[in-house]
Amino acid sequence: MAAPVPTACWVCAAAALLLGCCGAAVASGVQDQAEQFFRSGHTNNWAVLVCTSRFWFNYRHVANTLSVYRSVKRLGIPDSHIVLMLADDMACNPRNPKPATVFSHKNMELNVYGDDVEVDYRSYEVTVENFLRVLTGRIPPSTPRSKRLLSDDRSNILIYMTGHGGNGFLKFQDSEEITNVELADAFEQMWQKRRYNELLFIIDTCQGASMYERFYSPNIMALASSQVGEDSLSHQPDLGIGVHLMDRYTFYVLEFLEEIHPASQTNMNDLFQVCPKSLCVSTPGHRTDLFQRDPQNVLITDFFGSVRKVEITTETVSLDSDLAGFESKLPKDELATEPLKYAEQLPVAQIIHQALMSRSQQKPPREQQHSGLYGVLLLPPQLHKFSSLRNSFLPMFLFIFPLFFCAAYSFIFISCFNLLSPSSMLYVPSKGAVQTQQSLQFLKRNRTCSRG
Amino acid sequence: AASAQLQLAVPVAVVFAPGSVPGDLPRPLPFRDVQEMEISVNLRTSITSRYETVYRSTTAQEEAALNVATAQEADAALCPLQDASLGSLTVYVVPETSSVLPQGVSVYVGKHRSALVRAGGNLATLRTRLRQLTQVMSFAASSIATALSDRVPDSQLGPDARRHLKSSLGYEITFSLLNPDPKSHDVDWDIEDAVNRYVQPVLDKLSLVANFSVDSQILYYAVLGVTPRFDKETSSFILSAHSLPHVINPVEARLGSSAASLYPVLNFLLYVPERSHSPLYIQDKDGAPVSTNAFHSPRWGGIMVYNVEAPGSPQASLPLHVDVDMVRVMEVFLAQLRLLFGLSREELPPDFLLESPGNEGLADWELDRLLWAHTVENIATVSTTLTSLAQLLDKIGNIVIKDDVASEVYQAVASAQSAMAELATGHLHSAFQASKEAVTSSERAFFDPSLLHLLYFPDDQKFAIYIPLFLPMAVPILLSLAKIVREARQRKKEPTKMD
Prior knowledge:
Strand order of the largest sheet of chain B: 2-3-1-4-6-5-17
Largest sheet of chain B: 7 strands, mixed
Pfam families (chain B): PIG-S
Protein name (chain B): PIGS transamidase
Family (chain B): Belongs to the PIGS family.
Subcellular location (chain B): Endoplasmic reticulum membrane
Main location (chain B): endoplasmic reticulum
Number of helices of chain B: 11
Oligomer: heterodimer
Largest sheet of chain A: 7 strands, mixed
């Protein structure tokens, strides 16, 4: 009985080995196929980051946007593919005790402003119209390239918006609103022209979930910091700066993104878990029904980073280096042979000379009605039809100068009054008065707001 | 998406050399034949391909041209004798025993628009070879599906399907030399001469497709995003395949090429590794070193690593002067340019032999392939754009269409119709020009700044704004009007009442 058993063993072992090898081959083949199927089909990444509120006490919205900007740049998206819209300048705001910085953590741990921030739409350029123009591409032809969203059908776009919002709208610049219907229509216009492959929409405002309720275009995934009826709360104030530095949701998203590096395999399900109700007080929400892939298979770097598809080049062209020089059959651009010169300028010296000359004459000729005091106003000779304004200058001087003198005298009077009676202070000390000593030190130390 | 029924007509001439005529021809030579095949992309889009084939025998000149020793010479001799219009094909059938084609090769595709096919004995094998040939030389179902990738459901195409450059009116090509270690290497590349000698011929041939502009730059202290690994066996540094996607990012911010123009930019980078990381080789997924030492990224461009030999003596003075061998570099860059456009020679039946196009970079039939794909793509884009513009106008009833937008739309429609008509008759050149005009007009109409939907209030918003304003005011006005009317009526009745 001993003989058949070893052969049976051998056969079993051989069969097991064969199955194991086949299994491994099949498994790796299946894994390759699975990788192929679940990978995103994008070739480039874009980001549109919008901060919609102005004024110093909305510092946290600018800090939110800049921290997302910083993460997105760190993970690889270049400035040419980021459209950054900030509605107000916090870094060089006169109320910023530490100029040229925007902090996200208290005790000034992390400066998200950095050295190479490139703001594309700033201050009053951040309007609903400009935002929709950027998204849909209906932009006037004179717009520079850095202000355009030049995405194509293989672009993954990240859109991040923050500010003050309500049920179904987001407030821009304290004067206008964008509704969720308009936003959904803009995304549909983008889809019609295939201006995106996949879109990730993140919003950090009060009642943020209402903004993504109306989306109907495919391939959109949306995250919001709070549900309808809830407020998004801010994180911590810094007593030295005097305002709240960040919103809670974006603060925890920033902490989450700091752990991500360009090669990490973290997926969207982890991003959905960021900032649970215990930390955020509001309930973050997300919407994935319009998205085709399973969020489990969507990498964070598909939207926040720029991981390119590469292929190894295996073919070459064979060139013959001995051929004589090639004469291009296409017409080359003709260089202008005529030297360029300046257009006719305003003859300033001539005008002043004429004005001084006419002062000494009794009757000035018709073209030169400017004389004396008005000579310095430089009315050009062609605009003689505006000389009727001269007659209205006199009453203006009669009113404006006295008003100005009255205002000046009253100002001097009141400030003298203040100096004489120190008890009647006209300003209220701020809560951070204890910290003003330190602030004054900062003021003396580094003021580097020379650039815009 | 809009529905589209396109007909693509390809004029094919099949010329039989003496001794190669198959026995079972349906009619005596010469005769015409039309074969139609339908490529259905989705429910509403279908492409019908018509191969209008003319079968004839060779003329005396063609016979003389085919009696040469090699296929290359035959191809060169036949070139002036054939129909050179874009989109047409000429197939010369040679006898089975002919020595013009090498052993084991049954189809030879030349540099121009002709091919030599070995006779297969009967008509059926000939037809099979002809079908394979037309799929290689003009278009196939896969290339049409790729061109119409917007309309194909995603499950049919893999994620790699849409990686070729989209049809555009112009492209910008930037050559960059990256020198991270100028202290050790003083790199000199004669890019202007290389562009004039090697790149310009290719771009001249492609000038039919789009406008190209070329620029070049040198970047110093530009480091790659990945630290290469040192491999002890080959004592060289290795960049493995899975680290390649992260190489480009830190460099891309400094390339600055995207500030130049609104056209898609193709970047070709030549990286000279630092002294401390030389020599640097790229490894593919299986661990084998790549012969070209280069890789490319779809719709972006390519990178090649150029290794400098170590100096003979360790006391050689730094920096080393390096003269870049531009021929080797341009061979790789031009191959990458072809791959970015989708002109690959990899997937071919085994008995096909393709002639290398030489300095021209691409063969005439490859240009035709590109034109077929781009024309179909342009027409599909125009129809999608105009349909979505019409839908936008339907949705917002009070949108104002300016005159120039209207004229662009009419021009787009006219050009698209003429493109489709030209495609159905087989004139590829005029069809492509018409499709380009159609795309330009439709894009200008669609992206006109005045068509922003925000600027036009829907009617319900107008009601919502004006009714709260005017209704309270209108109530006393209407009531007093009613009172006036009642009083007037009463006054009219009164004289009859009074006595």
